[in-house]
Amino acid sequence: MEHVRLAATPNLRNPVMLYAFSGWNDAGEAASTAVRTMVSHWGAAPLGEIDPEPFTDFATVRPGVYLADGRRRIRWPSVQLWSASLPGADAIFILGPEPALQWRRFSQQIVGLAEHFDASMTISLGALLADYPHTYPVQVIGTATDAELVDRHDLRRSTYEGPTGIVGVLGDAFSTAGRPAVSLWATVPGYTAQMPWPKASAALVSAACGIIGAEPPIDALGPAIAKYDQRVAGMMAENEDLAAYVTRLEVLMADATEDDLDDDDDDDTVGGERGADERVGDEADVEDLVAEVERFLQQGGPEGATGDD
């Protein structure tokens, strides 16, 4: 744990550790937004950070410059740590950019943190792009390494084989260290890949809180969800092809069985590496739709309207 910089030593009792990373594992910023929402809602206190120097490619995830007391300062993109005492359990939250280097050493830092505070369980949050209409409830897929957790929370053991991200590596590291590990993944519509999807964030928050026994702060995401729905409605009103594509997805979802959906998305990283490329219908049509969505977002909405994301 030599790269963990603890700024506080709270008295935590067998805390649950919840973590997410921006980037590859975070379609629609759903997982990172879920962690930020929980940190803000429960007033989590800063616990420390992980030194970014050994693990970050600063040419990809660049530092920022800001002014303080008339001086220019550098804000380094580090992985941040918080702690909070929730109604159901104590918790440690971890959020930052997915490390680009030395994943095994990075995992040792996180596992060491869990051992230092004797974490009772770890929960990773992730999100993947999928052929999934925004009009349907968000699908959350959960896996666990512990048989008791699988039975208690209606989870499953992952059968996925293939490329993985840092959450998959960390899940294996926790399992090897004897720490129960849960992985939660939410589906994000591929046709809105350039937009944050707060519905998926709310679904992840709800699923995580259900496991740890805390009341989920779903209302905190209400305004963002309403804004998202408004923007997507504008996109569909402007683009008949996109509206037809969403209708096709809705028909396919209506015809699909629950088992089919589970099989398509089963993975400790739940196939996040596939979702951006696999689509319903002709590939060229989908590429045109994605380009149209990006144009829409660049212009700020119908007729070039502007507004905050």
Structure description:
The chain has a single domain, classed as 3-Layer(aba) Sandwich (Rossmann fold). Helix 2 crosses helix 4. The protein has ten helices and ten strands. It has 309 residues and is an alpha/beta fold. 39% of the residues lie in helices and 21% in strands. The longest helix has 17 residues.
Number of domains: 1
Per CATH, the class reads Alpha Beta
Strand content: 15-25%
Q: Enumerate the spans where pLDDT stays under 50 for 5 or more consecutive residues.
A: 265-286, 299-309
Task: Name the structural class.
Answer: alpha/beta
Number of strands: 10
| CATH-assigned homologous superfamily | PAC-like subunit
State the helicity in percent bands.
Answer: 25-40%
Overall pLDDT: 82
Number of continuous helical runs: 10
Largest sheet: 8 strands, mixed
User: What general form does the structure show?
Assistant: globular
